[in-house]
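Budget justification, computational time. The allocation requested in the original proposal was used primarily to generate structure tokens for proteins on the priority list. As evidence of use, we reproduce two of the resulting records. The first is shown immediately below.
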Amino acid sequence: MQPVLRVLSLGWGVQSWTLAAMAALGEIPWVDYAIHADTTHEVSGTYAHAEKWTPWLEEHGVKVVTVYGRRADVVREDWSNSVMIPAFTTDLETGSRGKVKRQCTDDWKIAPIRKFLRTVIGKTRPGAVEMVMGISFDEWVRMRTSNVAYITNSYPLVNHRITRAGCISWLNSHHLEIPVKSGCVFCPYHGIAAWQRLKRAGGSNWETAVEVDAAIRDKRPKYQLFVHPARVPLPQAIDIPEDHGARQMSLEDVPCDGGVCFV
């Protein structure tokens, strides 16, 4: 029987980075490849982390491969202005609300990874690939069975009951850097805190998110599209104290010399 190809889906977030490091240090079974499907839209911190730690993984025997989808456009003009992300919609006639079907994950992540796998294994056969997924125990509801016979998904963090907080604890105990949360800068699945952090940090990440939000606005007949569930332009949807003249508090602002504040 031919051996199973064991690969890790590496998004460079906390969970998948933990699994990559565990494989590198021999705490989980070996992986033949750690595959990063680069959407080209990740936050800058993710790219910085990948650049810093890819050499470390490879020095420890984990081969990192980066793959790309055929096109990274958020709006596909050749598909009747199809919007790839799961944007929030408002019907201009009725005011009813909905959501665009998500296509980005399939086109930017799943398809390029599977294309690479087929170049490695050649002719597909049932169970030819074990795909190690970085879903932690507190996210077990995200577990899915592969929809193709040649890939079997596995979830080591769930099997070992390791949560995201447990991943952070493990990384700290091994003196490894904690990465930022991975995800496209304009992802409609961002929570309130993530949007606020993005706006507060400013720079190219926030600017790109604002640009994408504006670019998708009128790409569907009779609808307006938004990246934020409030269904208003992104700069208005995200409210932070700095918008009202406040500034972010620093440690110098804290009248405390007891040695226990913010520990």
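The second record produced under the same allocation is shown here.
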Amino acid sequence: MGWSSYPPEHKRSFFRAVTLYAAMVAAVSIWVWLRSDMALEDWKARVPHAAADIRTVYVTPQTAQVKPFTGDSTLPPPGEGEGYISIIMTDIGISNHATERALDDLPPPVVLAFSPYARQLDMWLKKAAGARRESLILLPMEPSTYPKDDPGPAALLSRLSDKENNARLERVLAKSEGALGAMNFMGSGFLADDRNTRPVFDALRSRHANMLFVEAPTHAGAGSAAETAKAAGIPYLAADMHLDANATELAIKKQLLDLENLAHKRGYAVAIAQPYPVTFNILKDWAESLDRRGIKLVPLTAVLKTKVQHDKAAPQQEQTQPQQ
């Protein structure tokens, strides 16, 4: 049965269908061409992706160094009934949204501690310096519960050789341009032994004479890092509490009240927090009413100066106490 045997009306219907199909294909092609860039970006956003961090022993010279921002350390010592508080927001750089919110919404004195695993770490450190925020780099270290709790491929481990730990440390510090100092990420096991910590503090001092180290709140190894840092000659601060270990509104507000009481009693206090939405909301409201309670939210440099003054005054106070 050939084409000529079909009735004319069937042929006309066939040609109309082909013409309509061709018109639809052309319309869709034009629409896709006009929106290709938008569609591609949308598809990329929906598809999970992984990034490989290719490391090399060769260090590319940095053409423009990022100078760490240091806050106002010229503040006078807190008076009677007054106190200084410094808050460190940790794990910054992992989530772009949380990092942007930390830079935009948190009070300016809040310090940002960046993860070495953050993508675009250099960009974030530059933004922090441009926003006049003090920043730290987190140093992953072996916890006492390792390997159950793993601080990641850049971690300093007691079972590694000094050479390998030094190489890992240098890779992290090479990415920390613009950071005021470092703070441990995990590390309860590593920090308990001064044979582990002394090379770390020596490396910090070799990069910058005033590069400080902040020890996150921990029970294991308490006091060991402080003595080793003093012997190495680097500034040291110990965070007093973790505000949102229990990330509920009631628990965070209770921790903030305890933090204020400590600042009133000692003159200064330091706490760490994580970039949880509830923490962002509470910190912003809490900071607005601090002045009425004799508390000032300050960067780490101001707290460090207050601590040094406190430590110098403590022996003198002990000597002037009357003998019992």
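A brief technical remark on that second record: Strands lie at 83-92, 111-114, 135-141, 181-186, 212-215, 236-238, 241-242, 268-273, 295-297.
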